[in-house]
Specification:
heterotrimer; A alpha/beta; B alpha/beta; C alpha/beta; B: alpha/beta; Ubiquitin-like (UB roll); FAD/NAD(P)-binding domain; five-stranded parallel sheet; 15 helices; flat; C: alpha/beta; Glutaredoxin; Rossmann fold; de novo design (two linked rop proteins); four-stranded mixed sheet; globular
Chain lengths: 155, 584, 669
Amino acid sequence: MSFEPNLVGFLCNWCSYTGADLAGTARIKYPPNLKVIRVMCSGRVDPNFILEALAHGADGVLVCGCHPGDCHYVEGNYKCQRRLPITRMLLGEMGIDPRRVRLEWVSASEGVRFGQVVSEFTEEIRSLGPLALQEWAFDAAAADAQLAHQGGDHA
Amino acid sequence: MPKVNMTVDGRPITVDEGSYVLQAAEALGIEIPTLCFFKYVKPYAACRICVVEAKNKRGRTRIVTACNYPASEGIEILTRTPRVMAARKLNLEMLMSRCAPMPVLTDLARKLGIDQPRWGTGTDMCILCGLCVRVCDEIVGAQAIGFASRGIERFVTTPFEVDSDACILCGACAALCPTGHIRMEEASDREVVHSEITLGPNAAISVPFRQAVPNAPRIDPEFCVHFRTGGCKVCASVCPKECISHDDVERFEEVEVGTVVLATGYQDFDPTPFKQYGYGRLPNVITSMEFERMNNAAGSTGGKILLENGKEPRAIAILHCIGSRDENAHPYCSRVCCMYALKFAHLVKEKTSAEVYQLYIDLRAFGKGYEEFFHRILEEGVNVIRGKGAEVVSAGRDCQEGSLIVRCEDTLAAKFREIPVDMVVLCTALEANRDAKDVARRFGISVGADGWFIERHPKLGPVSTTTDGIFLAGVCQSPKDIPDTVAQGSGAAAHAMSLMIRGEVEMDGAYAVIDDEVCSGCRLCNDLCPYSAIGFDETKKTSSVNPALCKACGTCAAGCPSGAIRALHFADDQIYAEIEGILS
Amino acid sequence: MRPIVSPKELNDLRDRLRAAHDPNHTWVQLCAGTGCLACNCEPVAAAFRQKIHDEGLEGVVHLKLTGCHGFCERGPLAVIQPQGIFYQRISPDDIEAIIDQTIKHGKVVTKLLYRDPASKTRIEKAEDIPFYKKQVRLVLRSNGHIDPTSIEDYIAFGGYSALAKALTTMEPERIIDEIKRSRLRGRGGGGFPTGAKWETCRNAKEEPKYVICNADEGDPGAFMDRSVLEGNPHSVIEGMIIGAYAIGSHEGYVYVRHEYPLAVKHLTIALDQARELGLLGPNILGSGFAFDIGVSRGGGAFVCGESTALMASLEGKVGEPRAKYVHTVEHGLWDKPSNLNNVETWANVPLVIEHGADWFASIGTEGSKGTKVFALTGKICNTGLVEVPMGITLREILHDIGGGVPGKKKFKAVQTGGPSGGTLIVETRDAKIMRSMEDAGEISPGDAVTSLLDLPVDFDELTQAGSMMGSGGMIVMDQDSCMVDVARYFIHFLIEESCGKCLPCREGLRKLHEILERITKGQGAPEDILTLQEISETLIDTSLCQLGGSAPNPVLSTLRYFRDEYDAHIRDKRCPAGVCRELVGYAITEDCVGDAKCAKVCPTGAITGGPRNLQVIDQSKCIQCDACYQVCTFNAIVRVKRDRAADVQTTARQTWKPVKERTQAEARA
């Protein structure tokens, strides 16, 4: 039985959420693993949300916003763009593979692209395997084991 | 200006001292004939036709020219004494003996009572009135022509009788010449310039087209004489409302609005890169817009369908889908072309006796009465060929110069055809304006891959956008014809009006709130807000959000290190709850 | 030489110059005006220089090249001073005799003296020659005496003293008053009171003001202004400075016609010299008055003698006149007040200032004061430049001064005023014409007895008679002049000179010429006379300037006085004077002596006969070139109506006798 990744997506209302909608109306096929949380703007995405999601069992978090320059709130996606790399770096320090958090730009007309992004991300997380953070997060020994298992791969 | 009292033919009038007698007579409705007089240049007094008798205060009478004789106190002017009439007649007879019997002379002769000029008429077309020279000097300021030689050898010419660089081809001399001796001539041998889709010959001042808004003339600096030589400005001096200014500069005005309807239209597809059609290379290959303009009665040919050499075509091919439904250009269908192409066919059949070949892929006659119109076209004998025009070539040496051949595959007859025609009309695609992306960004709306603006919902929101208050109308949203555009326009207007009529704007309940107690006054959030909605209270040393400006993007909430900002409806605790819920 | 800064210095200079004049020296005042230059006076001058040098007489005998002496018929000519001996028709070979006999030994060379045809005696002194006797040479007073390229000569002869007087003792208003009281009138043809013109210009409000000298002198046959500028340029300069001072102008121009290179040369030299001496420039004679003069040359257009056309040409524009409803004294050169006067007018000004208005007004008639310079040319014995007081009669000028018509020909008419003037008949048919004028009411009853020849020459009398004094050209015509042809000639001249701007002049002259041409070719129609008069009237009434306005004068005056000639041409196809080629045939009469001079000059070989025989003209070969007529000294060739020529010739054949066989009486006839 192959592992089905549990993915959370933070989609900005104007571009990526609408793009996802378009994927739906255009009957684009993509894996059902992504659970979507709508925010008004990708700039709303607090790094804590990502950590919280991972802590609550998500294997990967996808943040989608408008293409740079197209943000409905002018600059929100730039703010998101600044926060995400730092977040990923911190995750790496904490022993979580940074590839489990992805930032993508999807516009309202890119239904097809949304489908592609979700498909790619799902496969990537599938190949990375489950995170199961809850299990090792509060057990130091299990955490070490996890680290050993990761092979110190926390770029 | 001191005034003087004078009489003309016994009738008294008060005029400015030093003004000319001709104007005084004019004001009294007394006509004095002239040949070399023009209101806007200085009087020349060369034709001597406007001679009158002037008696001054001391009783001395002399014959003077009315156009430049200055009025003085007590002067009595007589405009029709026997002496004056005899002089006018004889002068005109002498002129007519040299010149051709042109209307300006024969009409004046009739007015003066000359039945037959006693020395008959001659052949000269120039009456040496000097109007052309004077207008070129005083109004246009180019000074490109003048008089050469003297006495009976006198004639008007350019310096050394060669083409003058100073001539700016404004045509003022030709316009003023009373005999038509001066003409404007096309310098090349092309009689019709199809790409000249402006209104007639280049006009420096014109209404761009009949439906222009505002429907007022505008000055084109490229052709206006004033911008070329610093002279002229006759328009400003004749305008009774004095509303012409050559010094206008572009200025930017700020208008505060709450709603915007974007109706920025489209641009024509340029077929030049598609060398197989020969546009710009072969003669008589024109776009649909150029054909439309030529067909217009106010266009440069007066509505006639003509080839470049001025003749009527014997056969025309109309090629559909140039740039549309084309993986090398635009994949979409431009929607309007099939119907206007059929209209063209109909017009050609109506105005000329040419054969028409309609080369199409599919005929999209989707609207009210459209299919019926198509059948009418078929009845008119238009040759309808199902097969996109592949290539337009020159007909080759043995054929009449300028002839074309259209190559296509007639898919219904399964034949390859070469059709000889005189003119090819390319139905070019509608494409989004080059700057559509920039316009969209400015208004905060999205634009699709094809460049058309994105509506709120493809089915349910065709006139609104995701940005409140910005509406769409017309082709800028997607290609459509006039009935659809009008419908969409009405819809957009209605939406806009409903917003405006309300008087108040309903604000979204979503905005951000800063908890005074938690806020540390770090002011990081102040610069995060793209709407400058967050201010800082100096006394309280905390930041606060202006809910009217806040658009609820939430960026500040995400950025606050103290967690003091609560983005209503998307608050941290709400999102956490969502996350928990999703992943449980 | 350094500038003169006060009248006293000027006087001192004058005294010094006069003192330097040694009465024991001899001066040969040789005329070097354009007329005598054309008569080859330069070889004469060279011969003088050579001989003076060879004889070692330099320093004692001075050759002075002067301006025109006036007796142009007799050039090259010179006056030997201090004796005042007048030699004429000098050739280089005569120099030896002059030097040896007259200069060394005080003996007269008789053959070089003028021989008066009336008294048949030789006359020694110029003032005794009839040509000079009745002249009153004021403007031309210095012409034969001074070297025009020497300002010292001018000063020594009293020049610039009028200027000194004006600048230092007279206010501008007083100067204008003086000119007004003198009643000096413009000498260019218009005759406008000079003082009034100056006053209007002075009163004009704008600045700067200009004074202009009109030296365009376009009339054919006129050379008065030329001679003044060539022979005494300083007189004009002095007049202009005085005028400028009176008017308040600091800038002046002399507009000279292009065809006067010698005048321009002498004028330029004079201007430079005047500047050098401080008589032109920022501080004239130390008075603080600034004035200078520029020279502008014309481009060869008669119309530029018209004041507004002249000013346009000065400004660098095409020489076309403009309406004169606003006078040039108010708006002239560059639209500023400008005072334009003729050369001769300016030359009179220093005289008026020097000697006073009363003196000037004592010369001349009631309406015309002072003198007038005339260029006497045409069929007259003494052609040349004369200066006479206003009021002298035509008879005195033509007979006494002019010496009558040469050869055995008869006076016919005199043309005054150039193409703008009119032709007056002379003597022979006076009485008949005068009576018809009286009948027509053109002159008062009782005036008919006065011959036109006894008309006093002045502005108003001549105009009343249908001519005008004009600028001074006076052309005498004899029986060999066809009046219709004269009219045609002047119209032809004007066609070429018309600027062409206004319709009546351009088209009217063309029409007039067409008609006159036809008439001279025997293609005239009876209504042509009326048409000529109609066109003339329109030209006078409606022309823009006086070129067109006075163009009909020759036509109208010849019609008035020589109507019968027009009738002969039109009705009879005959030219009474025998001039019009198409109407004339030549025949040799019985007066022929057989010297066959005519046969030798005939270009077509139409004359045959052999020596000592009657020469006969073959009408079919004759081209009416007039050569035989000119060359026959026995007046045996006649010009008759073309179709009569053969008959006359035939008659001659029948009546001709060889000279030896003619009786005394016949021979003398």
